[in-house]
């Protein structure tokens, strides 16, 4: 090797101290996927058809392969805007909610700024804020999480997921509004699971100029692999986000599918109802097994197994059933379980009975 360039000595300290994301993401047909809060129903029927036969039409003919995608995602932003009662210049599209959140951090966080990430959190918040150079504070908001009466310290950015991931509960508009009113920095309201709850607070962005709502096509729309999410905010914030975003970040295929997905709200309603009934089915049976299940309006359930959590999680993995272990302070005994289809839910319940039955 030539030269003595030592990358770590030169890199930003936040990159050196970040950790590579090595989470084992299971794939295969024999696994039960209750770990990633994605939809067992996949995308809407029209999209299935498009994917099966019309790939070239989606990108505007095969010559579309060599064009860069529309960097403004104009058609998609128009549709998002009309569904949410905002204007297209309040909408910014990115490669999943994660990229959109990262863009917000890149616009607002200076080195050494404070980011407030209440616990329990969606783990990417602390990670993205730290990599962005923020000092991260993780105040607890209790178990189950509660924002009424929560008075965060002053900071540049405050992260809230609504419904909360991992707990699944929903905060109301009044509570979010008064937080946004009092907080001096940007409030990121992550509505990745809002469609499951049937409540969205996007209209609040016209009232609170520091509020940014972030949403995704990865969950109820079943388009996880196409990496597409968006923000709704004031025009001023959206303009700043557009200025720093990678111009051609979202492929045409993803834009077209997302646009089509928004046109089928019947499918969204159907998945919401199926999810709610499967969630109730799982909740009832889990409670009968004597474990604590937190009320959820999302597509997952937070289950408290107490001290025996690790053997249960590992026992399920050994049976090909993947769930999400939550080891945040106060939630050490908890596992998050994605609500899936009846077959997978039954396989999970049978596996769990087997694991718990075999325990002393
Ligand atoms: N926010 C929350 C609360 C999530 O749970 C997830 C996905 N696990 C995301 C954002 C990321 O979504 P996307 O796939 O759109 O990046």
From TrEMBL:
Transferase found in the keyword field:
yes
Q: Which UniProt keywords apply?
A: Amino-acid biosynthesis, Aminotransferase, Histidine biosynthesis, Pyridoxal phosphate, Transferase
The cross-references to Gene3D superfamilies, in alphabetical order and at most eight, read:
Aspartate Aminotransferase, domain 1 (3.90.1150.10), Type I PLP-dependent aspartate aminotransferase-like (Major domain) (3.40.640.10)
Superkingdom: Archaea
One matching Pfam family is Aminotran_1_2
Aminotransferase class I/classII large domain: which residues? Answer: 53-349
Keyword Zinc in annotation: no
Top-level class of the enzyme under EC nomenclature: transferase
Which pathway, metabolic or otherwise, does it act in?
A: Amino-acid biosynthesis; L-histidine biosynthesis; L-histidine from 5-phospho-alpha-D-ribose 1-diphosphate: step 7/9
Give the Enzyme Commission number: 2.6.1.9
GO molecular function terms here?
histidinol-phosphate transaminase activity; pyridoxal phosphate binding
> What CDD domains does the database record attribute to this sequence?
AAT_like
Catalytic activity entry: L-histidinol phosphate + 2-oxoglutarate = 3-(imidazol-4-yl)-2-oxopropyl phosphate + L-glutamate
The cofactors required by this protein are:
pyridoxal 5'-phosphate
Which InterPro entries does this one have? Answer: Aminotransferase_I/II_large (IPR004839), HisP_aminotrans (IPR005861), HistidinolP_aminotransfase (IPR050106), PyrdxlP-dep_Trfase (IPR015424), PyrdxlP-dep_Trfase_major (IPR015421), PyrdxlP-dep_Trfase_small (IPR015422)
GO BP annotations of the record are: L-histidine biosynthetic process
SUPFAM superfamilies, per database record: PLP-dependent transferases
Which protein family is named in the record?
Belongs to the class-II pyridoxal-phosphate-dependent aminotransferase family. Histidinol-phosphate aminotransferase subfamily.
Q: What is this protein called?
A: histidinol-phosphate transaminase
Classification from the root reads:
Archaea, Methanobacteriati, Thermoplasmatota, Thermoplasmata, Candidatus Sysuiplasmatales
The gene is: hisC
């Amino acid at each position: 090797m030539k030269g003595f360039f030592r990358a770590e000595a030169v890199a930003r300290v936040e990159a050196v101290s970040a950790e590579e994301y090595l989470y084992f993401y299971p794939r295969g047909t024999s696994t039960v996927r209750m770990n990633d809060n994605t939809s067992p129903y996949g995308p809407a029927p029209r999209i299935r058809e498009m994917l099966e036969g019309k790939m070239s039409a989606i990108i505007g003919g095969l010559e579309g392969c060599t064009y860069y995608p529309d960097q403004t995602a104009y058609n998609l932003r128009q549709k998002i805007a009309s569904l949410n009662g905002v204007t297209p210049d309040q909408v910014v599209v990115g490669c999943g909610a994660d990229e959109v959140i990262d863009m917000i951090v890149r616009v607002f966080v200076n080195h050494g700024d404070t980011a407030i990430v209440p616990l329990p959190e969606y783990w990417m918040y602390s990670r993205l804020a730290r990599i962005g150079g923020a000092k991260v504070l993780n105040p607890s908001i209790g178990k189950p999480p509660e924002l009424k009466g929560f008075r965060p310290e002053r900071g540049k950015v405050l992260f809230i997921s609504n419904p909360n991931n991992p707990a699944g509960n929903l905060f109301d508009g009044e509570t979010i509004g008064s937080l946004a009113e009092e907080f001096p920095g940007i409030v990121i309201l992550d509505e990745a699971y809002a469609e499951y709850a049937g409540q969205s607070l996007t209209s609040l962005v016209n009232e609170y100029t520091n509020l940014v709502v972030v949403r995704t096509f990865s969950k109820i729309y079943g388009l996880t692999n196409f990496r597409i999410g968006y923000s709704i905010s004031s025009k001023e914030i959206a303009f700043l986000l557009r200025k720093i975003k990678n111009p051609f970040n979202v492929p045409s295929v993803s834009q077209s599918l997302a646009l089509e997905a928004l046109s089928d709200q019947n499918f969204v309603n159907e998945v919401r109802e199926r999810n709610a009934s499967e969630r109730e089915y799982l909740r009832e049976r889990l409670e009968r097994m004597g474990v604590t299940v937190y009320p959820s309006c999302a597509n997952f359930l937070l289950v408290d197994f107490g001290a025996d959590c690790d053997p249960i999680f590992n026992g399920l993995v050994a049976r090909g059933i993947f769930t999400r272990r939550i080891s945040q302070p106060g939630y050490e005994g908890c596992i998050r379980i994605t609500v899936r289809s009846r077959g997978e839910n039954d396989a999970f319940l049978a596996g769990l009975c087997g694991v718990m039955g075999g325990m002393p």
